[in-house]
Amino acid sequence: MTEFELPSRKPDGEFELMCLIRIVEPSHAKPEKLEGTQPEPQAPDAGESTASGEAQYAQFAHTLRSVLGSVGESVVVVGGDQPDGGALWNLHVHTDTPEKALEELSRQCSAYGRQHGVTAGLSNIVVRNLSVQLATNARDPHTDSEKSVSLVVCCSSPRLALDISRAGAVVCIDGDTPVSVSGVERALTEVHAAAGAGHGRPIELASSLERTKPQEQVKSHPQSEPQALVISHSAALTQELHVSGLAPYVVQAFDDAQVVAATSAVVELWESGTNRSVTQLLQAAQECLDRLHTQRIEPATRETVAPIVNLIRNNPESIPIVTVLVDTQCSVPLVTDLCDGIERAQSDAEIIVLESGRTGNGLTISVEWVQY
After folding, report:
1. Running DSSP on this structure, what letter comes out for residue 38?
2. How far apart (Å, rounded) are the C-alpha atoms in residues 198 and 229?
3. Residue 150 near residue 229 (C-beta atoms within 8 A)
4. pLDDT by 10-residue block (mean), the chain, 372 residues
């Protein structure tokens, strides 16, 4: 069961996936020669080395295009060697399975790195649903006028990004490095392009991910600007971004389970059909987070998940909404037994099980309490 109302899928290329792949060469500095040691072998001619590197990069770029072509359409791979060493490519594809594309791209990066003794990794990953991008007119409480509001969500779970983007958000995902300022800037660029085509509006990351009161955030922005809401799983993005003419507002969630809950609360209010101000959207998300108990369990075993069932059993006055994010190597029977135990502890419990797409044998669990 999922909290998100999913639209009908496009037959081909439901999602747009963009990312960077960077190769970092090891330092070429030579160690100091010790007395009595044999002379260093002669390095290959610089021109020969450069030609060899360019050929390797060209072959790797061909591999990247083949990977994307096997999972989707509108494939773009641009880039190559960089003046300061290494290489950088921008990748783009329309696909129904962005999580599979990311998995294979990551595998190819690891293989290339091992073969050539370099670091090759994914970053700046952005996923957008091509059919749905959440953009609405929200009522401004100060001017009583309507403004456009857009949504961007940051998370670490590739599979979860599909559900979130189907709810209308543009999603930034952790790669081999966490979501960064440049990664969010990449998302901003995409949303700007979508806005120009009449699909949604621009968004911006706020200067800090501290959880401030909604009223304080609203007062801090010019009231005539278009509005944007950011839900992030990390407190690390503290650098201020500026995009002219935008008013960003931020909800900080501390893990992907909180991201799911906060996004669900925002989407539910957003689609309720009533006049919605950005203050109300912020309040809906933050009040939801205030009701949450979240826990990361790794490794997930019957012993380590038992406290969750006990927690629910010991709170009979409230109805729990339990979200379980399941990593790729987690035991299916274990998750089934956990859900059965929760239902026995509280028959009215609402249980949402989602795949995280993260490699590992763990669960991220949130429990939201709803009073009778």
Report:
1. P
2. 19
3. yes
4. 38 83 74 48 48 84 96 95 91 94 95 94 90 52 51 88 86 85 66 51 32 42 53 62 56 88 87 72 89 92 95 90 94 95 94 91 92 66
Closest to 160 measured CA to CA, from 338, 296, 2: 2
DSSP 3-state assignment of 217? helix
Q: Which two tokens stand for residue 247?
A: 């008013």
Rounded-to-10 torsion of CA 265, 231, 157, 161: 70
> Which string of DSSP letters, residue by residue, matches 236-290?
---S----TT-EEEEEE-SSHHHHHHHHHHHHHHHTSSS---HHHHHHHHHHHHH
Residue 236: per-residue pLDDT: 57
pLDDT score recorded for residue 142: 45
SS3 category, 159: helix
| pTM beyond 0.90 | no
**Which pLDDT score, from 0 to 100, does residue 93 have?**
96
Token pair listed for 355: 């795949």
Q: What residue type is 104 in one-letter code?
A: E
Whole-number pLDDT of residue 219:
44
Q: Please compute, for residue 201, the number of CA atoms within 13 A of its CA located in the half-sphere on the CB side.
A: 19
Please provide residue 215's backbone torsions phi and psi, each rounded to the nearest 5 degrees.
-65, -35
Q: How many helices (H) and strands (E) does the chain have?
A: 9, 13
Name the nearest CA neighbour of 263 among 236, 241, 281, 238.
Answer: 281
Instruction: Supply φ then ψ for residue 358, to 5 degrees.
Output: -85, 140
- How would you classify the pairing of strands 318-326 and 350-355? parallel
- Identity of residue 237: L
Q: What is the DSSP string of 100-117?
A: HHHHHHHHHHHHHHHHHT
Tokens 């729990």 appear where? Answer: 320
Cis ω for the linkage preceding 299 (within 30 of 0):
yes
Residue 127 per-residue DSSP state: E
The residue among 167, 186, 194 whose CA lies nearest residue 122 is 186
Q: Which two tokens stand for residue 40?
A: 């260093």
